[in-house]
Design brief:
Helix content: under 10%
Shape: globular
Distance between the termini: 17 Å
Oligomer: single chain
Structural class: mainly beta
Radius of gyration: 25 Å
Number of helices: 1
C-alpha cells in the first residue's frame, strides 16, 4: 500500500524581552552631591549567552520528490541543531535533532536527523548535501529516509463509503533519493531526481 500525503505545520516562536528594573533613591532634606551610582545590571550578558546557544534559524525546503519544509535552529554549535516540522500531513507536531558536519568538509555537508511527533511517528534520515555543484545556483542532494507512521486513518474512497468501514493502519517506509537541481530565481527551481522506495502496511497500533 502506498499513499502520498502532503501538508504543512505552523510553528510560532515567541520572544520575551527583559525589562530593566529602576530604583529611586530616598531624598535627603538638604541638597547635596549624590554619590556615584553603581551601574545597574543589564540584560546584555544574558542576551549574549542566549545568542551563543541559539545560533541561527534556517528554513530548509525540499521540492522533490514531495514538498517538505523544516525549521532548523542551531544549539550553540554548527554541528548540533533542533529540528521542527518536515513530516507529512497527519503526523502531528514534529521535533527532533540534527547532527551535521557543517563546513568541516569542503564541498559537501553530511547530516543525520532523527524526529518524533506528538503521535509517536518516527523519522530517521541520513543525507549528503552539495551546496555548490559547478556554480552557486546548482545543488545536489542524496539521502536515505526511514519513516514509521503508527496509525493513519483510512475511511475508504469517496464520501458515500460507510463510516462503519473506518479503520487505521501502520505504514513503514524506506527510500533512497538523489537529485540535482538549479535555482533560476527565488521562486523558480528545476532539476531531475531518482527515487527507490519500498513500504509495508500493518494493522494500526
Amino acid at each position: 500500500m502506498k499513499n502520498k500525503l502532503t501538508g504543512t505545520a505552523l510553528i510560532a516562536v515567541f520572544v520575551a524581552s527583559l525589562a530593566h528594573a529602576t530604583f529611586a533613591q530616598t531624598p535627603t532634606p538638604t541638597p547635596q552631591a549624590s554619590p556615584t551610582a553603581e551601574p545597574s545590571p543589564t540584560a546584555e550578558p544574558t542576551q549574549s549567552k542566549l545568542a551563543s546557544i541559539v545560533r541561527d534559524v534556517k528554513i530548509r525546503e525540499r521540492n522533490f520528490p514531495e514538498r517538505s519544509s523544516r525549521t532548523v535552529i542551531g544549539l550553540g554549535s554548527d554541528h548540533v541543531s533542533a529540528v521542527f516540522r518536515g513530516m507529512r500531513q497527519g503526523a502531528g507536531q514534529a521535533l527532533g535533532v540534527e547532527l551535521s558536519t557543517a563546513d568541516s568538509i569542503p564541498g559537501v555537508e553530511f547530516r543525520a536527523t532523527a524526529q518524533i511527533t506528538t503521535k509517536l511517528y518516527r523519522l530517521l534520515e541520513v543525507e549528503a548535501y552539495v551546496p555548490h555543484l559547478g556554480d552557486a545556483k546548482t545543488h545536489a542532494d542524496i539521502w536515505f529516509n526511514y519513516t514509521r507512521r503508527t496509525r493513519d486513518q483510512l475511511f475508504g474512497i469517496g464520501p458515500r463509503i460507510s463510516r462503519a468501514l473506518d479503520t487505521n493502519y501502520s505504514l513503514e517506509e524506506r527510500s533512497f533519493n538523489a537529485g540535482v537541481f538549479r535555482d533560476f530565481s527565488e521562486s523558480a527551481q528545476a532539476g531531475v531526481y531518482v527515487r527507490r522506495r519500498n513500504s509495508r502496511a500493518f494493522r494500526g497500533e
